[in-house]
C-alpha cells in the first residue's frame, strides 16, 4: 500500500481486512497519543497553528474509511492526545521565569505525572511490537484509568489558562519572540519592550478594556487548585490528584511564608505572597514624616484588608478577575489561609521590627521546623500560631523591658498631663514676658532654654532620664479653632497626623481670612505646646498620631493653668492697699445697700442674658466704691473657682483614673499582643479627649468662650486698679458719679458675659452627661457649687 507524504492522504481502507486495519490504527494511535499525527489519524484539514490555541490541545480526526467498530474505539481513546498536548503546552507556557515559583513547582509536578504517562506509552509500544495478541481493546483497557487522570489535569490547566486570559485565548506564542537581539535590548533599555510589557499587551481583551496585567501566579494558583478539590470532593481520584498538586505547587509558598514568619525577611521576588512590602517606606519616615507609616504601610496585605476592620484599603489593590471574581496573583489569599492571613502578616512584621533594631533573629530549632510541612497539613496552622506567638512575645518584651515603654509613658503623663506640674509653674514664671508676645514674635530658642532650666531644676528619678526629649514648639492656630475645624470636617482625630499643629507656618483656613489685627491677638501662650522625641521602635507606640492627642490635652490643661495663674496674680494685686484700704462708711440704709442699677444675678437667670443699663448711683461714694470692689472680688472668685474645678475634674477624675487602668493592664500582663498594646494606648487617649470635652463642638465653643472672658478680665485688672485709685483720689468730687457709672458698666459687661457662657456651658454639660458622656456628671456637681452674686 502506498503511503501519502506531506499533505498527501493515505489510500482508503475499504478493501483492507479488519485485522490489518486494527494493526495500522494501533500504530497510528501510539504516535497520536504522543501528539504526533499519524497516517489515518490526522489533524483536521482546516487546522492552522496561528489560529488555534495550543492550550486547548490538538484535535485529531479519524479516516472515514476505517471500520465503524474500530472508529468508535479509537474516538474513545483520542481525547488522551488532546489532554496530553494541552497539558504540555501549559507546562511550556507557565515555565517562564516571570510567572513565579508556584507555577514552576506546579509545572514540575505535572511534568512528573506526564512521565508516568510516557512510561505507559513505551510499555504499550513494546507490547504492540512483541505480542501478536495486543489489540485495540487491550489498549483501551490499559489507558482507560489514565484517561480520567489526564482529563482532571486538563480541566485544571484549562481553568488556570482561562483565568489568566478572560478573552478565551492564550498568548499567541508560548515562547519569547525571536527578534533581533540588539533591537530587543534597546527596547528594553528604553522601556518599550521586555516580557512585562508584552504580558500587559497580551492582557488587553478584544473589547479594548485593560485587564489587571497580572498573570495567574502565587496564591491565585493555589486558590484555583483548592477550589477544584472542593468541587471534586466526591471523586477519590480527583481528590488525591489535586491534593498532590496542591502539596507540590504550595511547597515554595510554604517556604516563603516560613522565612517571613521566622526571620522577618520577605523573600518574594515574583510577588506571589499575600504580604506586600513598600520599600520606599523605611524607619526614617517615622522621624521625618508626621505619620506612623512604617508600621501601617511598610508591610501590608495585598488584598487591602486590615485587622479589626471590615473596610478595605483599596489603594494599590488590583481589580478582580472577570472570570472567577478572584483578586489576581499574590493578592488572592488561598481560602484555607483566609483566617490566618493577619497572623501571618503580624508575625513577620513583629520580627522585622526587631531586626530593624539591630537584633539578629535566628531560626528556632523546633521539631516542626525540621519537618517538611505542606499546605493541607494541620501542622502548618500550628506553625503559623507558634510563629505568631513567638514573634509577638519577643517584640512585646523588647518594648516593655528593654525599651522602657512604661517609664516613657509615665514621663509623657508627667509632662503632658501635668501630674507633677511644678516644672510648668516654674516655666510659666520664667517665660511670662515671652509668652505675652505675639505668637510670631516669640523666640523658640529662648523658650526652649527656659524649659530646659525648669526641667533641670525640677526633674527627679526616672523622669530626669527623658527630660531632654521634651521640646517646645508653636502651633499654627488656636487650639479651639483647630478642634472645631477637625470635628466639623472629619468628626474624629484618626485621620490627623499632627502636621497642622506642629509648624507655625501652617495656619488654619479660618485664620487666613482674618485681618492682621486679628492675627496679632494670637499670643504665644495660646499656641505654646510641647513635643516629644522617641526613637524606633518606641515610635511605633508613641507615634505622631498619639503625640497629637497628648498635645491637644496638654494645650487644654495649659489654658486652664494659665487662666488660674492670671486670676491668682489678680488676687495678689487685690491684696494691695488700693483694694483693701478701709473706708469710713456712712450709716447704711436698706434702700442704698447696693446700687439700683445692678440687681442680683445668678447663673442661669434671665438677668444673665439681658444686662440692665447701669444708672448713676445715688448713695455715698464710699459705699459705692466698697460695693464695686466686693463685686470685683466676687467675680474673680467665681472665675477662679470655675477654672479650678474644671482643672481638678480633668486631672483627678479623667486623666488619673484612665492612666491607672492603662498602667494596670501593662504591668499585669493583660496586654498580650503588640497590636492590642497600640489599640489600648489609642483608646486611652481617645477616652481622655472625650471626657475632657474635646470631642464636642458645643462644649469646645462654650469652654473657649469662658476662658476668653476670664483672660480678658485678667488683662483688664490694671485698668480696674486705675479706676480704684482714681476713685480714692477724687473722693467726693463732682466727677465721682460719672466715674462710678463707667466702672459699673464695665464690670457689668464682664459679669454678663461670664454668666451667659457659664450657663451655656452648664446646659451643654448636663445634656451630654445625661445622653452621651456619663463621665461628665462629676463636673456638673462641681460647677453647681459656683453661685452667682448675692
From TrEMBL:
Superkingdom, taxonomy of origin: Eukaryota
Keyword line: Cytoplasm, Cytoskeleton, Microtubule
Polar residues bias: start-end ranges: 493-506
Segments forming domain Gamma tubulin complex component protein N-terminal: 26-402
TM helices/strands, residue ranges: none
UniProt-annotated stretches for the region Disordered: 164-187, 493-520, 583-622
Domain Gamma tubulin complex component C-terminal: 405-784
A Pfam family recorded for this sequence: GCP_C_terminal
Compositionally biased intervals (Low complexity): 164-179, 584-595
Gene3D superfamilies (UniProt xref): Gamma-tubulin complex, C-terminal domain
Locations listed in the record: Cytoplasm, Cytoskeleton, Microtubule organizing center
Primary location recorded for the protein, binned into one broad class: cytoplasm
The family this protein is said to belong to: Belongs to the TUBGCP family.
UniProt cross-references to PANTHER family, sorted A to Z: GAMMA TUBULIN COMPLEX PROTEIN, GAMMA-TUBULIN COMPLEX COMPONENT 2
Protein name: Spindle pole body component
Organism: Somion occarium
